[in-house]
Specification:
The structure holds 2 protein chains of 2 kinds. By secondary structure, chain A is mainly alpha-helical. Chain A folds into 2 domains: about 5-100, Orthogonal Bundle (Rna Polymerase Sigma Factor, Chain: A), CATH 1.10.1740.10; about 125-185, Arc Repressor Mutant, subunit A (Orthogonal Bundle). Chain A has 10 helices and no strands. Chain B is globular. Chain B has helices spanning about 10-20, 25-35, 35-55, 65-75, 95-100, 200-205, and strands spanning about 105-110, 110-120, 125-130, 145-155, 155-160, 160-165, 170, 180, 185-195. Chain B has one domain (about 1-213): Jelly Rolls (Sandwich), CATH 2.60.120. The chains are: A mainly alpha, B alpha+beta.
């Protein structure tokens, strides 16, 4: 069975946290490690460094699973913040073997309506919030998650000043806040 | 807690949530977030977006023994869960700053003390804690890049306004300021700094070579 339902993934993290459940951990690993590798490759790491990073992130998942609180964050949000914290750690970032990210390999596909309809709870809300942005806003926001120089790259790509990219990004974030903050 | 007037820009909070800020900058933003529920909520929202983006990424094949190697590592170190312990004695610091060791307090001029925060440096950028007495000014310094400040206690005033606990100020090369502490108690602030600090006055110039901050 594919553990792709968000709350199912959360239960797997709890099983690791409470019982050191290796079977549950294996399923989390199968689901997240290959995506974390993609994440870092898109952020500009070479495949080897991205794989080391995915391993490191999953090791942290094992070690911190007991701290996971499903009432505070969904499984993928929690794992994203673990990966994010590793990425911020400058000492580790040195080892990521950064190269210039290639914009063509960055995601720019719009949210698919079927994800919006079938995705569960929070995933569906985030998905429809992103879908409510203009295509350009959505692209600027998405690119911002993948690499530091995103704004300069976008400005060059779209032929608009950096300040304009930043103000469009700001508007997009304010829009997302509005769409995602009510009734939480 | 007094109301927080000055917050990081939306794009700085997104860069924090996304993990694209440099470590020293992220530490100062994290201190602000722990004092500002409003910024914290926005960051949580942006982390949900991050979780969603991870979920949507296509998987990339890992090396053949990736999982087995990881379990071997876990077995080798006992697989214990980690508990984040405080690494310094300043119990009044916001929780994100308690995870870093601190250097000794150093004298930087009358009523001005500074200690380094053990966040790994990124290039020239590092984190410092300043403690400045009422009525004193921040030491003169150049801005060779960005400078992020979060006030932890007390307050200071500069051309941009009055900054109290939790307030966040972003300065860059274009900013030329020497904030003055206007609270009754010393002002404690945490700063991520790129440029050099130039000590003013004869004494400052004498100790400059030793004060490499």
């Amino acid at each position: 069975m594919q553990p792709s339902h968000p709350s199912e993934l959360g239960r797997l993290i709890e099983a690791v946290g409470q019982n050191r459940d290796r079977e549950a951990f294996a399923r989390l690993f199968d689901h997240f490690a290959p995506r974390l590798k993609t994440y870092l490759m898109r952020a500009g790491a070479n495949p080897g460094a991205a794989e080391d990073f995915a391993q490191e992130a999953m090791l942290t998942v094992w070690r911190k699973a007991a701290l996971f609180d499903p009432a505070r964050a969904g499984a993928s949000t929690w794992i994203f913040t673990i990966a994010r914290n590793l990425r911020i750690d400058a000492a580790r970032r040195e080892k990521l073997g950064q190269r210039e990210p290639d914009l063509t390999e960055l995601p720019d596909d719009p949210e698919q309506p079927d994800t919006i309809l079938t995705g569960a709870d929070d995933a569906a809300r985030v998905s429809s919030a992103l879908a409510a942005l203009t295509a350009e806003q959505s692209r600027i926001v998405t690119l911002s998650y993948f690499h530091e120089k995103a704004h300069a790259e976008i400005a060059r790509e779209l032929g608009i000043p950096l300040g304009t990219v930043k103000s469009r990004l700001r508007l997009a974030i304010i829009r997302l806040r509005g769409l995602l903050s009510e009734t939480q | 807690m007094s109301t927080i007037t000055y917050k990081p820009s939306e794009e700085t909070l997104l860069a924090y949530a996304a993990g694209t800020l440099r470590g020293p900058e992220a530490a100062v933003v994290a201190a602000h977030i722990s004092l500002c529920p409003d910024s914290g909520r926005l960051v949580e929202t942006l982390q949900r977006v991050g979780g969603h983006l991870i979920e949507r990424l296509p998987p990339t094949r890992l090396g053949e023994n990736a999982f087995r190697n990881l379990m071997a590592r876990i077995d080798a170190d006992g697989g214990e869960s980690v508990v984040e312990t405080a690494l310094n004695e300043m119990t009044d610091l916001p929780e994100p700053l308690r995870r870093f060791p601190l250097g000794p307090w150093r004298w930087l001029g009358p009523g001005t003390r500074v200690r380094s925060v053990g966040v790994p440096k990124d290039g020239d950028c590092r984190v410092l804690l300043f403690k400045i007495d009422p009525g004193r000014r921040m030491p003169q310094h150049s801005h060779e890049g960005v400078e992020l400040t979060c006030v932890l206690s007390g307050s200071y005033r500069d051309e941009a306004g009055r900054f109290g606990p939790g307030d966040f100020e972003e300065a860059d090369e274009a900013t030329d300021h020497r904030p003055m502490v206007d609270s009754d108690l010393p002002c404690l602030c945490v700063v991520a700094l790129d440029g050099q600090i130039r000590l003013s006055g004869l004494l400052g110039r004498l100790i400059q070579p030793f004060a490499r901050l």
